[in-house]
Amino acid sequence: MKRVFHIAVREFVVTVGNRAFIVGLLVMPALIAAFATLMPRLFTARDYKVEGQIRIIDPTGLVTPQLRTTMDARQIAARRVEQAQRAMANAPPAVRDLAGNRGDQAIQTALGPIPDLRLEERPANADVQQEKAWLSEEGPGLTHMALVAIHPNAVVPSGDLEYGTYDLFVPSNLDDRADSEIQQSLREALINARGEAQSLNRAKINAIIQVPRVRSVTVTRGDERQTVRGFNIILPVSVAALLFIGVMTGSQALLTSTVEEKSNRVIEVLLSAVSPMELMAGKLIGQMAVSLLVLALYIAMGLTLLTSLSLFGLFNPWLILYVLIFFVIMYLVFGSLMMAIGAAVNEMREAQGLMMPLMLIMMVPWILWFPISRNPNSLSSVALSFLPPVNTFAMLLRMASNAPPPWWQVWLSIAIGVGSVFVAIWFAAKVFRIGLLMYGKPPNFATLIRWARSA
Amino acid sequence: MNDAIVLKGVTKTFGRTTAVEDLNLVVPGNALYGFIGPNGAGKTTSIRMIMSILFPDKGELSVLGFQSAMDAKDRIGYLPEERGLYRKMRVGAFLTYMAKLKGVSDPALEKRIENSLDSVGLAGTSRKRCEELSKGMMQKVQFVAATIHKPDLLILDEPFSGLDPVSARLLRDLVLNEHRRGAAILFSTHVMPHAEELCDSVVMIHQGRKVLDERIAKIRRQYDPRRIQFDPLNPEADLSSLRSLPEVERLDRAEGGYEILLVEGTDPASAMGRIVQAVTPARLEVSRPKLEDIFINLVSGSLEGSESLAALREGLTNNAAKAAAV
Lengths: 455, 326
What we know:
Number of domains of chain B: 3
Strand content of chain A: 5-15%
Number of domains of chain A: 2
CATH topology of the largest domain in chain B: Rossmann fold
Shape of chain A: elongated
Number of strands of chain A: 6
Number of helices of chain B: 11
Oligomer: heterodimer
CATH superfamily of the largest domain in chain B: P-loop containing nucleotide triphosphate hydrolases
CATH architecture of the largest domain in chain B: 3-Layer(aba) Sandwich
Distance between the termini of chain B: 35 Å
Order of helices and strands of chain B: EEEHEEHHHEHEHEEHEHEEHEHH
Number of helices of chain A: 18
Radius of gyration of chain B: 23 Å
Distance between the termini of chain A: 24 Å
Helix content of chain B: 25-40%
């Protein structure tokens, strides 16, 4: 046992003391922080201004004046303020507190500068086909952005409330944001024109149709708080990502260090002092400690974020315990198999082919996370949560969803996981023992299975 | 004293290849034993079985009284043929790690490591990374790693391969020191003069089978005491009287003189007296049989006239030439 401890300590110290590890550990949070802070700034719409000329053929004669109003810069600004206020009202209280008065401003900044749209009215009987040619014309002055042809019944219905609409023609290079601004202005203009035609007050119509979307209240034992939309989606993904990061960190390091020890020929020196099982156990434990350190760091960061956003109450702390249990199961399965692959090959290049099935298995949860977290109790979700080695991922996704599975299913999945650990370690130990001293042609899967059966 | 290693009918096969077949061996507790044979004879496989790195398909073995070396690893030092170090690790850290794996819990371990490095001429290298060392220095570090825990049994697999003459001499002295300290030593080599020079006993193995297991002195007595090296004092002397002696079967030119082959059953001592009377010698000595000659002699029965024998002879001669250079 002492030897296992010494091997584990060395694995831990060498990995954690490695500059690449420290950099790698900090890179992920740094990337997340960079995305959160830099990306909105880098990709803000402030550099893009919708600016150009719009031609309109309006046989009703009622839409154009309304459109001039709705395309007015002040009107657009007012609409945007309203949008921003709606968005902030839907945000978590902590985000609203954090944003303060700057929230509206930030959203408006993200939307970019107020568009500058000029309207040119064409005769009501103008030929649409001829007018389309204008869109392709290039010359000095404003960009030719759109041709709008209002339907004759767009304002006054032709039958029983059968309102027409409009046709919109745009050049090939029109930005979708400009398209959106034009359509929004046209919508407002048409509603106003229809209202006036019916002698209705727009303000009254607005008041009548206004039913603000309320924020639901999530009730938990002894506590209740406003529902945070998206949390039920983000949480399963975050939990699965934690598991993935932990398992990948450890198993990849195990593969690399085993290949290195074999190619350095230090393996036989080690085997003179310890048994293959002791070596394997020591390495597994050492790298597991490294992965747990990484997980602890990320979990601490996540909890700090939840606490700072006052969302901690939405999170079941027991989930951390289950993350750790499922991590240990999955790590032992993948880590021991990766180590077996490392022992079987002569260099990293040769390991790629043997690693491929394991990597594909690791990708399965990412393909299935959305259907599992949306339908955590569907037949396929339940079946996957009992199918090793993806059962760990699937069960955690279900547990983090808004309809967690019953406890017996969780512990059955854990029991199946423990069983898969024994099978994986049994197989890996046999391959490891034979592969360590095998050099030359790298084996294929059939050879690995033959080794396991013959050892 | 108990036997350090006992092998009884040990056999190991890899697929259709039999690497070791029915090997019996007893290495006494105080022995300096050579394990010799050409490349591919089964030496490394046998050693790996002794070390419990591989396991025999048939037969029994015991190491330092235990059924498996696993139970006695802390008392065994092993220098494998495929030598390796953690390249990025510092020498001192590597030796500390190996010592701990070997169960050394000496509070003065650091001092012990420094002394050991000093004894192999590597004083002041403990802070260096292993990759900074030359190949010879690495081999010395590996020898220190194999002996840092003062083992009762030291197994060295081809310890002299790749060493320059000075390092080889130093390593030979270190091996002898370990033997004097009381460790039983088993070392394998395909360079037979090394075994001849160092060992008190050798076991010869060929194609996985033992062909000889004897003390060196007895081998010399037993194998071919009929050859006598002879240089006449007068190079122009007439040697016909020598040829006509009833004890002399043949007289051949040899390097720097002649080699006399005595008639079988002749007492070398009385024959030498008669030779001196016939022609005054500048040099007269009983030729010491070389292990490779004995080895060739032993295996030639199964290989006589075949290309394998020629290849084996050539291989052994090349190895002997390399050893002589060392």
